[in-house]
Amino acid sequence: MVFAIKEINNNSSLLPGVTLGYRILDSCDHVHTSLRSLLFLVNGTFSQTQADAAGSAKCISTAPVPAVIGLASSSPTRAVAQTLGPFRIPLLLHYLKKVNFTNQFKEKVYFDNNGEPVPLYDIINWQKNGRGNIRFQMVGTYDGSAPHGQQLKIDEGLIQWAGRHTEVPVSLCTPPCPPGTRQATRPGQPVCCFDCLPCAEGEISNISGATECTKCPQYYWPNKERVFCVAGIEEFLSYHEIMGIILISLSLFGVAVATVITVIFFLFRSTPIVKANNSEMSFLLLLSLKLCFLCTLVFVGRPSPWTCRARQAAFGISFVLCISCILVKTIVVLLAFRSTIPGSISLKLFGIPQQRVFIFFCTTGQIILCACWLALAPPYPYKNTSYQGGKIVLECKDEWPLGFYLVLGYIGLLSCMCFALAFLGRKLPDTFNEAKLITFSMLIFFAVWISFIPAYNSSPGKYTVAVEIFAILASTFGLLFCIFIPKCYVILLRPDLNTKKGMTGKMSK
């Protein structure tokens, strides 16, 4: 500061007609000492000792103090600034804003609005010469007055690193981790020492040295190297894949077989074997079996709000209609045997009208159950991304799984009743006892659906739907073949048994 003031006083072009004086007081970097010196300064009460400390005896006067230059440390400076406030003495900021000149070294000197000088620095590199002595090599500059982006200039070729190398030394004990991994620091070791861990499932890193992996967006999955995200592969039981084609073919084959049997029964409707087995119930049972086959078509294809609602409802209602018809046929077989007992009127009490009402109420109960299920918590299409391998399984999600098990349980209840009654009538003395056929068909039905439940819950993705379709087809084929194939055999190949005597076992051998 002394040098700067002397330069200003000796140069008439800087502050013409003005001579600057100064008083330097030591604050000892202490707030109290700073304030005491400040009050002596503004009051003009200097002793000769203080004047000697200031370095100039002839500047002791009551001349006004135009400005005060603050201290290096902040705490005393704030105390001084707050104390000077009532005296209206300026930290030279007002005057510094007006300073703008070029010195004898052709350097432009000026201050910004905050009274701060524009930064101008030389960047020095300490280097050792051949004799081991230190020399200072300027390798660049920083000029705050230069345009943006041009303030810093460095000549990297002049820089000499440790060990007299011209390249930047590598201060890592572990090479940067490649893309697809992340850096994990080693406990108790420097931060430059780390392990490279693969990104977790569903995460990627596409740069070297990544400290964290990035999670892929929804419905996207990392590629094999976990470097970028790819769209997940949507999976559902399609009409175009082999498994879907096989299941659809089996379903249509079942419809065709049921249709052929219906035609056979219609052509031979006047024969004893068709009449004896309640022809109206047989035709209704064949219709319900066709519906059971056809309901599997709703399970194949891309799930939609409509198909998700129709799947289980169509399955549940068609199967209840089917089991209700079999239950009626079983009851009729038992009552027909009892009607041979003198005075029995049981078959008359369960005639055709009563049979229709029984089937109607059984089926209506399932319809009401399905309607409540679909009204309260209907299944809806859902993209399941919990499977591995980047698969997005399109499935129908049940918010209320109990609804499905109630529908299945209702079918099971009717099936148990049907099996129990058919089992009781399996030894009736007719040559062609339908109760035996119903018993065997219900055993197959139970075997299929009992094995279905664990397979349904453990099958992944589209195979869950395939398991249910297979269970529907297997149980339907079991009912169709066990109940109707033996009758078709008699109608087509053993017409000699398709007589009243042949049906009652009174035919001569």
In short:
The protein is an alpha+beta fold and 509 residues long. Helices cover 47% and strands 12% of the residues. It is built from 15 helices and 14 strands.
Describe what this molecule looks like in 3D.
With 509 residues, the chain is an alpha+beta fold. It folds into 4 domains: 2-110, Rossmann fold (3-Layer(aba) Sandwich); 120-158, no CATH class; 181-231, no CATH class; 242-504, Up-down Bundle (Rhopdopsin 7-helix transmembrane proteins), CATH 1.20.1070.10. The chain has 15 helices and 14 strands. The chain has a 3-stranded antiparallel β-sheet, with no helix packed on it. It has a 3-stranded mixed β-sheet with strand order 12-14-13. A two-stranded antiparallel ribbon has the order 1-2. Strand 1 (100-102) and strand 2 (108-110) form a beta hairpin. Helix 12 runs antiparallel to helix 13 (434-458). The radius of gyration is 50 Å and the shape is rod-shaped. The model is unreliable at 53-59 (pLDDT under 50).
Unreliable spans are: 53-59
CATH architecture of the largest domain: Up-down Bundle
How much strand content do the residues show?
5-15%
CATH superfamily of the largest domain: Rhodopsin 7-helix transmembrane proteins
The count of DSSP E runs of length 2 or more, i.e. the number of strands, is 14
The residue-averaged pLDDT reads 82
* SSE class: alpha+beta
**How helix-rich are the residues, as a percent range?**
40-55%
Instruction: Provide the CATH topology of the largest domain.
Output: Rhopdopsin 7-helix transmembrane proteins
Read across the widest sheet, the strand sequence of neighbours is 3-4-5
Radius of gyration: 50 Å
Largest sheet: 3 strands, antiparallel
Domain count = 4
Give the CA-CA distance, first to last residue: 141 Å
Sketch the topology as an H/E string, one letter per element: HHHHHEEEEEEEEEEEEHHHHHHEEHHHH
What is the tally of helical segments? 15
Oligomerization state of this entry? single chain
Question: Which CATH class of the largest domain applies here?
Answer: Mainly Alpha
Quick one: overall form? Answer: rod-shaped
